[in-house]
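Lab notebook, bench 4. We co-purified these components, and the gel suggests they stay together. Before we commit to crystallization screens, I want a quick structural picture of the whole thing.
Request: model the full complex, all chains together.
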Amino acid sequence: MSGELEAAAHGLSGRLLIQAAISAAAWVERNAAALDAINVFPVPDGDTGTNLSLTLRAAASGVAEESGSSDAPSLTEVAAALARAALLGARGNSGVILSQWLRGLAEAVEGADTVDGSALGRALGAAAVSAAGAISNPREGTMVTVAEAVGEAVATVEAGAKPQAVIEKAFAAARVAVAKTPEQMPLLADAGVVDAGGEGLALVLQGMLQGITGEPLPTAPIDAGRIDEAWLSRAEATTSEGRYGFCTEFNVIGNGLEGERLKKALSEVGDSVVVAGSAELLHAHVHTLEPEAAFAAGETYGQVSDRKADDMHEQHTQVRSGTGSAAAVAVVAVAAGDGFAALFQELGATVVDGGHTFNPDAASLLEAARTTGARDVIVLPGHRNVIPAAEQAAALSESARMHVVPTTSMPASVAALLAWGEGARPEETVAEMTNAHQQIVTGAVAHAARTVRAPVPLREGQPFALIEGKPIAGGDSTEHALMMCVEELRARQPQSSLLTLYVGDEPSAETAAAVRAGAGAGLDVEVVVGGQPHYPFIVSLE
Amino acid sequence: MTIRIVTDSTADLDSTEIAQYGITVVPLMIHFGSESHRAGVDIQTDEFYGRLRDSEILPRTSQPSPAAFQNAYESLRDAAGIVSVHISGKLSGTLNSARAGAELLESAPPIELVDTNSASMGLGFAVLAAARAAAGGADLAAVAAAAREAAGRTRLLMLLDTLEYLQKGGRIGKARAFLGTVLRTKPLLELRDGVIEPLERPRTRQRATERLFDLIVRTPEAAEIVVLHGSAPEEAEALAQRVRETLPGVSVRIGHCSPVLGVHTGPGALGAAILRSGA
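Here is the predicted assembly.
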């Protein structure tokens, strides 16, 4: 070892490059998950670390095999073998770029038994040129940019400099270049990360450096100094902006499941908790920073399936950075109940709270329209009583052109929002929404405020069914009224395929199961917690 | 000495077409954990979809290595030229590997790379157009032009059961606008200019299939249609039958969504590649 260190003082030998490659491969492998976690460009598929690691491993084991027979392989042989093995094993874009980088390096040292620091510097420059050639349209702020910065930093090194000093300088330049990537690529700044491929190249240089000096690598990436700390805190910052985290959903299959208990458990790990279903099957929804903890909570009750965890931060960034059309057309929807408010928001609407009486004034609709900043604002009243206020607001509006799509129920507003196509002109959107909300029929169950004889006889407190806002019959129980409601909806719209049950403040798993059973064949049933006051159930059929 | 055609395994061509024109297909890779397979070589479509449904691990895909392209091109060294026709560079790094592979060659016939901005049979149509031009004796530039021209006449529509796979695979693009609602929807997507664009989000499969049918039969000047599916053969057959009845003069057949695309669409995808008639 001391002999090699002495050699390092003079030149980079084939043997030293093997050590450097093995060390780099080990170091990148150790940090692969951290790199995966910050991978956002060119596609955020979370595999930059894995791809770089697989590519390097292929290169390192390839070179170890090829040069194993020789005691003192030349630098030329080793570099060529490394490049060849990397090209064979290249995975992903980052792997291809790395393999081209190694190829450039190999070509630059061709013919040499060892090189001094000065020649090594020039070889790193050639490596950058070769890496840039690997991709069709290199962009600023990527792995190629970092390779180029490294190449420039070591382009002119005095003759006789130690290779170790050159790699140190290269590593330092890589660090600076990596830190600049978010300035160069707004996507990275948005995501709050540095470029994963560039960071990977910095790690390669760091690993090489440690291979050459013979220092052991840190065992844990997290304790590996400021680099990894910085990634992790940055990566964490992305997901811990409080309001976001992951929109997490799953099903629990079991016997005698109690939705309330699961709901309570999920409230420990997040908010916006929604649990619906039967004693055999529960569907759960929670916004949390730790989807795994939510799944684990589910597993204490039964078998968890259909796991889904969507990064809401990403979605939010997308919405915020949005398209021109999002700013050109906005939608204001009136909601009663947390579930409906959340649903409207998820579908892109600005929500006005209808309050307990579902009767917002024109001023609050105008104010909501103004805050959207859009030139065209579509209002979804969601109730017959709100239509006059919406029309008044439209007449009074000065800042925006307001259009009223007269939905008379919140499910109708949902249907309208789902028909909101990106990039469509305002008039087209109004037409699409109008068409969409007219294709559904809506019913509800309420309790009679007092005893009446018409239009249908009801006792005070008796549950009754309504269709499109009109009472049709009283029931023996809320469930009974609900089943009457479902039957009447089916009779009015026999050619339907989906029934959506929006449950109010106190969802009952049994009821949901009964509706599923009673809906009959050929009809999908979806249960959503609307959280609406006054109506234990709102049902829509389409 | 003729021009030879190279493509990648996302083209979803059937084996007869590949054999008929002597097309070289370079496979993309599918990884279940540390287990790697060459798409269409070590793992076939049916086996893949079975595993996709059952596996706990979400498989990943990767582009072919530059060396795979180098080998493919080298095996065609006697050709007058090679036209290498591929999946959208905005969806996959395959073209980058092809470019790197071409640079590795010491002596080779001239190679022209074509980015079709498409995938599946959208890419397949371009490959077939190139192959027919080559068979007719066209030169390198003319064969590449034929591929690009056909690529410009294709339309690729896709109905997914869920956006989950597209999101986890990092290819969701603008369809992200359809994410994140408590309601389950069946997204209808179109590949435009090489990227995924969201079209509509019907709430049921039945209605979504109906909309897909409408979009297919209303595409002007359709000349050839391939109904594509990822393990949904009955639905594909029923859809193809309706399209045939509605558009009598048009060639309508059924094709598979190959495993690499399946990783991103998930099981149960249904779609269509449509080639409009030339000018």
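Residues 450 and 460 of chain A are 4 Å apart (CA to CA). Worth comparing against the SEC data before the next meeting. The radius of gyration of chain A is 32 Å.
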